[in-house]
Amino acid sequence: MKFSPDILTLKDGTQADTPEKFALRRAEMLDILAREEYGYIPEFKGEVSAQVIKSSDDRICAGHGSLEEITVSFDAEKGRFSFPLKLIMPVGVKNPPLFLLINFRQEIYDKYIPLEEIIDRGFAVAVIYYQDITSDDGDMANGLAGLYTRPTDGTGFGKISLWAFALSRAADYLFTRDDFDKENVAVIGHSRLGKTALWCGANDSRFDYVLSNCSGCGGAAYEKGKRPEAETIEHMNKVFPFWFCENRQKYAGREDEMPFDQHFLIGASAGRRVLVESATEDLWADPQAEERSCIGAKPAFDIAGGEAVHHIRHGKHFLSRNDWNFYMDYISRTINSGGTDNEKQY
């Protein structure tokens, strides 16, 4: 299958056939994705500060975990911004791998977070509630959205770029700590927040693993030639245009004209490990299109290293224990042996 545009062809027509040349191509792809799909993420050159608001004296999850409630703060363009971060560590585990999850609800005992299972397997997890950053609607004055000037030329940030920006600010703080394994850190999200995790990971190379759970259209799913049951840009323009920049709207029904596709999003994390999880009954997200993006991104990983892995489980659109165990199994195998099995690797 031919993928368009070619992931290794630079704007000048030359091939990115070395890691050094691919670094140039990666920068081009990120610029195209920002300009035409997600909008430019606000520039940040400052520092974050953090305050531990609450540290649990009583261990959680049958005594197997500890909880810190933290406020992360930084200076934005138009004022100071703060958001909550919850950090759960497995008790008695030295330097655990860390998941940074952006989630749909504030609670840590949540249907998308099998918390006791995660910490019992020796993983730490930090959690952000996405609407603590900015609302999930077209209000571009809400929360963080109101603290940066949004360009009016069609390239202005969508909400996904702002949520991704906040994940990187959380990472700024987390990487000042010395109580987890900084060489095994994963950013993870589900559905629209899976799109967010992919966009964050593409821009922020500190994440060793970029985990997309059922992210679909505007996430892991290749847009050209999608199945009739799958979500399209046209539908998103009607319902969720504020997730993206205005430029993306012009590609509804004109996907073949796009100067990008979602294999760019996967390939921009080449050199690291991207895990794309799909569900057999999640036809709206189009598992086959998600797999195609991984295949289309393979040449980037061949040059830069790392791998893109596609895994499909039975069931519906959900972030399940099955999904978490797939991610933890993969990371554990990578730490222990550098190998994988049973998944489709590209």
Q: Which key phrases capture this entry?
A:
alpha/beta; single chain; Rossmann fold; about 350 residues
Written overview of the protein:
The structure is a single chain. The chain has one domain (28-47, 85-337): Rossmann fold. The chain has eight helices and ten strands. The protein has helices spanning 19-38, 115-120, 159-174, 192-203, 233-239, 262-267, 287-304, 321-337, and strands at 48-55, 65-76, 79-90, 98-103, 124-129, 185-190, 209-213, 273-279, 307-313, 344-345. Strands 1-2-3-5-4-6-7-8-9-10 form a ten-stranded mixed sheet, with helices on both faces. α3 (159-174) crosses α4.
Chart the SSEs and their pairings:
Blueprint: H1 19-38, E1 48-55, E2 65-76, E3 79-90, E4 98-103, H2 115-120, E5 124-129, H3 159-174, E6 185-190, H4 192-203, E7 209-213, H5 233-239, H6 262-267, E8 273-279, H7 287-304, E9 307-313, H8 321-337, E10 344-345
Parallel strand pairs: 4-5, 4-6, 6-7, 7-8, 8-9
Antiparallel strand pairs: 1-2, 2-3, 3-5, 9-10
